[in-house]
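Lecture notes, unit on protein representations.

Consider one protein chain, 415 amino acids long.
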Amino acid sequence: MLKTKIFIVCALLLFATQGNGFSLEKSNYSFEQILSAELLNQTITCVYKDHSGYVWIGTNNGLFKYDGNSFKIYRTQTYDPTSICSNKIYAIYEDIKNVLCVLSEESSTYNRYNSTYDNFSRYSYNTKSLTYPYPIPDNKKKAKFLCTREAIYQYIPRKGKFERIILNTDYNVPDINSYVEDAEGKLWIGSFTIGLLKYDPIKKKLISYPTKNNSYLSDCRILDLFYDSQGYIWIGGLRDAINCFDPKKEKYVKTWSSKNNGQKINISVWNFCEDNLGKIWMSSAQGINIYDKKQDEFVVVKTNPAQEGSLFSNNIKILYKDQTDKIWIGIDGAIQMYDPYRVKFRNLLQTYTDNEKLNKSFKSAFKDSKGNLWIGTDLGLNKFDKNGNLTKTYISNNKNIKSIDEGGVCAILEN
């Protein structure tokens, strides 16, 4: 059983330069640091939180499982077929049956985790055991894909397995670093050597988007593609620009390049994720860019050794948002975690200190199914909406039998 751990987060005030889409506003981003002697000197390649709450961390030297208190390490063993097939972990996900699957860079096989025995089974990509990487869609015609560094696999429902796609092109598709599937079932591929490509499973055609000018991809060396909640594809890598691409119109809608950046944000981006407010996080060797699409503004988060809750390092390799909206940050030698709701809770207390009912000791907090935050104090109950606005305060009133009882609110639940 996974042990529960409560993370206490302290507020950190960060500043970014103003002008040209950069915000000067104070921004609270504070991070819980999860240090482990085993993780020191390890290069983190991926992070995944499974349905039981365990956090799995892939590195170039093994697989780590974090239970909220300690780490367990899994490495390949020459004479043990139940160990992982390679120490260089490429990707981690759960299939439709919630079985953890681990893909490795240096192997034509992959691993499935046996939770009962705490070990792994090995399978080939071309066997029926390789199930959907994502839940089966209602639209049965919608294709599902799996990519390794050197090949593209498509799930064939009538055969019940993935098969390698034979591409009728004049070039191979090496160095695949990332891929996303759009709403129409088309596969978008980020290659380090070729750039951005689209595969249409109906036409069985692969299209390359070459480097030409600002209306196209700015550079080939792609490390990550990210499909956001609004249907845009974000493109990052060891490149001279960050691109935002509309797959429906097949048009680049935003480009931030080193030529017009003024060195205010970090252009070479390793990884993307989207937080609970729809802001796009971008990892780099110089900290984290956070882009607010509504305000068209960036905040740049960097390490500050003088501040508690600061980033452990500016060299951010991995960003991963789990099912509870926590963002896990992979840094060489450490993992950090950002909890937006705990930061919001602290900010609420600071924002409303002029309110006598919130200025007293708080006793409880609860987020309901509609996203409202309820805070109980020794004087009453306070309700905040999704945006953090105080909408209603409930206090004891001896003349009103429908008011809450005296003595403060010690616990809040939803039936």
